[in-house]
Amino acid sequence: MYKKLNNLGFVIGIFFILISLVLIIGGLVSDVLAHRLNFYTGFSFLVFGVLMTFLNRKDDKDLKA
Amino acid sequence: MNLHIADYLIIIIYFLFVIGVGFIIKRRIKTSNDFLTSGRNIPLWITSLAFISANLGAQEVLGMVASGAKYGIMTVHFYWVGAIFAMVFLGVFMMPFYYGSRARSVPEFLKLRFDEKTRGLNAISFAVMTIFSSGISLYALAKLLEVILHWDFDVSIWLAASIVMIYTFLGGLTSAVYNEVLQFFLIVLGLSPLVIVALHDAGGWSNIKTLLQPQLTHAWRYMGHAESNPMGINFMSLIFGLGFVMSFGYWCTDFLVVQRAMMAKNMNAAQRTPIIAAIPKMFMPLIVVLPGVIAIALLQPALASKGFSIPSDGHGGLDYTMTLPSLISHYYPTGLLGVGITALIASFMSGMAGNVTAFNSVFTFDIYQSYFIKNKSDRHYLIVGKIVTVAGILLSIITAYIAKSFNNINDFLQLVFSFVNGPLFATFLLGMFWKRTTGHGAFFGLLAGTIAAALTHGLTLAEGKGGWIYPLYEIHSGMGQAFIVASISWIVNFCTTIIVSLFTKPKPDAELKGLVYSLTVKPTYHQDKWYLRVVPLGLILIAITIILNIIFF
What we know:
- By secondary structure, chain A is mainly α.
- Chain A is built from three helices and no strands.
- Chain A has helices spanning 8-29, 36-54, 58-61.
- Chain B is mostly helical.
- Chain B has one domain (5-22, 43-551): Sodium/glucose cotransporter (Up-down Bundle), CATH 1.20.1730.
- Chain B contains 21 helices and three strands.
- In chain B, helix 1 packs across helix 8, helix 7 crosses helix 17 (378-403) and helix 7 (116-149) packs antiparallel against helix 18 (409-433).
- Chain A binds chain B through residues 5-6, 8, 11-12, 15-16, 18-19, 22-23, 26-27, 30, 32-33, 35, 37-38, 40-41, 44-45, 48, 57, 59-60, 62-63, and chain B through 4, 6, 9-10, 13-14, 17, 20-21, 24, 41-46, 178, 181-182, 185-186, 189, 193, 197, 265, 332-336, 338-339.
């Protein structure tokens, strides 16, 4: 896990997944956040975050040294 | 505007990530080169995004939206006349010199090509400029937090500066660059929903065109005369002042952005960095210019029912700097509001950290190591680099208070750039393409160009600024004044450098190999696929840019 933190794509992906969870879960449990724009943006961030997290970036491996 | 706990949670997650990146990178920092130059080991996609993100500070985000509202779609000239052509030129022609010379900074390249005094002059002026830029980013954020969240201006400045200081102090340039990439995605993805919603609310681009004066929705049609467009300049001044002098001066010689390309793993990656960066840069007006134009459309009587407003500047006009925060406040619900505010905070941090890290490198290598303490251990320069980080942040704070007196921060920043970058590009152009250019010529050319910039500013008046010697000539806008100042300083530098060079002794050819175009072996990539070669990529980008100019003519 720690090694993965050296991969910038992974870090960015995790960041956007966390933000998307705040927007989506927040929208489901709180009336204040239950806004269509939050859901649309949350799902977009989730897709982007997952793609960034799991995309294999060969270049980044060199940075672990 | 009131933030909900979810908004604060998003801001806190962002702060934790940027500081966390600093801690992760800290383990890799062993030498002064690791801290100040990243050791030339960064992948292409990161150098490319960092290249444009270093410029995606408060100037780009708040300033360009403000300019979009003030000058209309003409603001795209910063991209489609200026940036793209300059970035292609940098990648194709100039990176081989920067990267091939193994210089650690632009001032160091000037030393190799010319002499020590030219390096010193450039290093000092660049250091002053980066501190100004950093301070303006800081001011923009503090003002934003004061107006939107009612945070105390002074507390905001110190709190925000502290966070930037933590991650730049821990991880140096690499940490700043990694955070710049995160900030790039946050700014683009965080502001995209705003553009979509606001554009839809304003009835789409066709409705905006019917509501606004045509001068605000055409990029070129009203550029024939200075009086017929809101920027107050004609197309010749624009093409020469912005398109050539200022844009090439900034993108090709400003160490802040060039440093990102110099971090690449090899020559090909270094050349492709600005070219790849030009692709998202080309479409950046959708995020940073279009919202300004939409905002002005929303203020028209036909759309009064939308209830959108921009605060007054206290003198009967609009406070254009507040255009983007006003849009965010109007359209973003709780949750997304936190994302929007975080994107703005990210833009500030990106700009400030970029400037501070560039300041670090130049001050440590080109001022401290060159003029004060030479031949010390690497650890000594690593410690100095870290101390300079703290000093740079403190100087930025002082500068932030100076910037407080200007109503459009973009005009102010352009003015600072025009003093320093305007004349500098003439020095590089002559130095790289005319081997007869001498160190004395470059030095006195730079000096004369900078003095000419100051004199021109002192003799022209625009929006109450300048004219501190005598208000001899009045210019319609601060932006137009900046273009004219830059143009005159460039011409004075160019002529002075040629004249002085002709009367002084040039370096022998043997010393200029790898530093002058005619004496350098050009890198060839004929064996690579077309999309890995800089020239085909550059030509495609230029063709698309021309098409965009025609569409929005």
